[in-house]
Amino acid sequence: MCRTAIFSLIVLVAFMVQTNYGQTNPSFSISTVGTFKQDPQYGLGECTYCTCPPSCLWIDNYKCPTNKAAGADNNQQRWGNCALSAGCPCFNQSGVGFQGVKDLQVTANAPTGSFVGRMTHYNNKIRGDSPSMLRLVVQLTSDAFPQPTVVSAPLNFLETNNDPPCDPSIQKSSTPCDDRFSFDEINTKTTFVVNNTLYELAVQGFVAAGDTGTPIRNFVTEEQKTNVADIYVTINATCSDTRCGPNEEARGLPYCDCQCNLETATCQRLFGNTWGVPPSGSSCACECLTDPASCPAGQTLNRDTCTCGCNVTDASCAKQNAAYEASTTSCGCNCSKQSQIDCYNDQAFYRTNFANGCACECAITDQMCKEYYNKDTYIADFDTCGCKEGSQGDGGGSPDPGTGGWIGIIIAIVICIIGFFALIFGALCLLIKCGVIPGVYGHYSAV
User: How many domains does the chain have?
Assistant: First the structure.
């Protein structure tokens, strides 16, 4: 006869986040303290997976000595009647203990799990009932976390009656009969977010004490012995939100933030030397860097145009067209600065066409390609808005001529065709007149 027993193991895990910028994944300093107490813990409410018989006894480590070979438990949960010796209840009851770790360094997303504590089963012969329900709970606390976070995994305990024959699917030792702990649901997970980093903690299972093998679901214990097993968890981390603003680029672990990839040199190239990215990092946009004190007496600095005395503003231009802003080169309106930056970032030779609704157009020329490559064989390629090797004019020395330009080209072609036929007609008349070839009425004669 065997009884399935379940009791509640609660593990406190204190995570002190120590970001290591030299690694891809963040590192943690972990400290743990375990408890098997059956009472409601850490705001989880009544333990629905915990039923301990009246013989259950909660023992703090300071009130009851522990088996020195197994190490010092944080605390123990004992059960069963042990009126067989004077050592009760500290040693002759059955029970479990948990020994935590302190300042253990681990790395998120490690291929192997992280050791968080050692579970001890004091497997003694007892009278009376054993616990009927168990649950492993891991609580994470840190100064970096707004509140404690818990992960829960059901854990079952199968206690045998110690009378052979033993269950061959459980029995590992020569002592009848082994008991077994098993996770009901392995890899149960909980998630939380810290500084835009999404952490996921999952209980992996048991590993033989001191071993580094793959965690397994079951922990089989020998009767009348102290049995120990290590508990492992996985700690995975990903960036929670990778959305960034204009001109920003998302950085992955361990940063999980947005980095400005706009440079002052780009602002000056597009808008003039008075523009740049604020050195304070307050924004990732081209802003006017002119000192207001540099304006002549009686004039104020217009930061929209970065000029003194101009009364055109972004707001007044937007009333004309939502895509317009105050020009950075004159006291008027132009395409918005961000639209110009976007065109430039798309491909460096693109520019916005104010007359065409601020659409991007290729601004590359043959001359620019020659100067960039320092070779006369390089020309503009408007298909890619880049440069290619070819003869002069293959890539076009100027941008797409547009509708009006194409009409002009067609007219020129027609004129050339008419001129060609006129030239042929004139040549024929000359040959006939000279008598080289006959005309319609024979050879030409001047008589």
Answer: 2
